[in-house]
Structure to design on (328 residues):
């Protein structure tokens, strides 16, 4: 019996673990993750913050359900390093040999180079959610840096909780990759009518903690906010792979069999870079998890990424309605 160790219990890692165990029942599949709740839907965290979804509904596969499927788990455990020559992974409190190792370590929120920004000013995981939930009842206003889809969804969640909202977007309009100028202008006006303060072509120069609040230097003046949140894309978790001598770029470089530059080491999901691209999409990560299991079990020779056409989720309005109203 061979052993496959998967680092990361996001949608890519959990999907790969369950699919591999189903396709190769005799394989020992071990899933390692630094959190303790199993697989949960990160993309729905803003809904929980807004009170629209109970937190328990986020969980898609609990630790018990993963074990019931034959996947062994090591939760509250952080992968620290990898020795690709000895085929050994080192983690919190121990080490283990592997026949195959899979990076499914995902990504962290990216922070723009603004003095004073910290990683805890993001909303990516349950710890972030719980921290914000403890602060929101005592807050009156919030600044969201980044007017992308997630930034707007976060802003709406905070607005629903009764906070005054300012959105600072460095581009000259909202969602330029999705909307034309007329549509973007309509959306900005739509949010303004809802009571948002939406700033485009907006520059934040510095953020400083001051008496439990944040002093923000922005567009030539200083404002005070109770909460500052950043939504500026993702940064793939590649540090462990890089330290192990594995080829990296924006992500961990893989081929169409998910193979890295190290023998018997693979990468999938938000940490993986295929043909110069990190997809950063839930459906792409899930598909890669299933495809990896198919490759490892011999059911698929190689992976050809499909064309992903996700429907953007706008807060408070559908993309179809927005386009109709903006075009009227």
């Amino acid at each position: 019996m061979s052993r496959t160790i998967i680092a990361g219990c996001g949608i890519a890692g959990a999907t790969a673990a369950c699919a591999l165990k189903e396709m190769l029942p005799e394989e020992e599949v071990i899933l390692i993750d630094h959190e303790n709740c199993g697989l949960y839907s990160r993309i729905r965290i803003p809904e929980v913050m807004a009170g629209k979804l109970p937190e328990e509904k986020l969980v898609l596969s609990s630790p018990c359900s993963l074990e019931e499927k034959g996947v062994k788990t090591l939760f509250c455990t952080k992968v620290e390093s990898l020795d690709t020559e000895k085929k050994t992974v080192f983690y919190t409190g121990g080490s283990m040999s592997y026949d195959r190792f899979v990076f499914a370590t995902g990504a962290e929120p990216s922070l723009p180079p603004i003095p004073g920004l910290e990683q805890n000013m993001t909303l990516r995981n349950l710890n972030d959610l719980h921290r914000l939930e403890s602060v929101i009842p005592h807050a009156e206003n919030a600044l969201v840096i980044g007017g992308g889809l997630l930034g707007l969804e976060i802003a709406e969640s905070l607005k629903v909780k009764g906070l005054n909202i300012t959105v600072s977007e460095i581009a000259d309009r909202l969602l330029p990759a999705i909307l034309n100028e007329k549509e973007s202008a309509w959306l900005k006006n739509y949010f303004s009518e809802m009571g948002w303060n939406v700033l485009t072509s907006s520059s934040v120069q510095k953020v400083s903690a001051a008496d439990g609040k944040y002093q923000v230097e922005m567009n030539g003046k200083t404002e005070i906010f109770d909460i500052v949140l950043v939504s500026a894309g993702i940064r793939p978790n590649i540090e462990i792979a890089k330290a192990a001598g594995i080829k990296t770029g924006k992500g961990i470089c893989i081929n169409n069999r998910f193979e890295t530059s190290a023998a018997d080491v693979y990468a999938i999901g938000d940490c993986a870079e295929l043909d110069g691209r990190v997809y950063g999409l839930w459906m792409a990560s899930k598909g890669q998890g299933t495809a990896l299991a198919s490759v490892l079990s011999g059911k698929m020779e190689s992976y050809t990424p499909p064309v992903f056409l996700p429907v953007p989720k706008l807060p408070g309005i559908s993309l179809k309605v927005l386009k109709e109203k903006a075009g009227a």
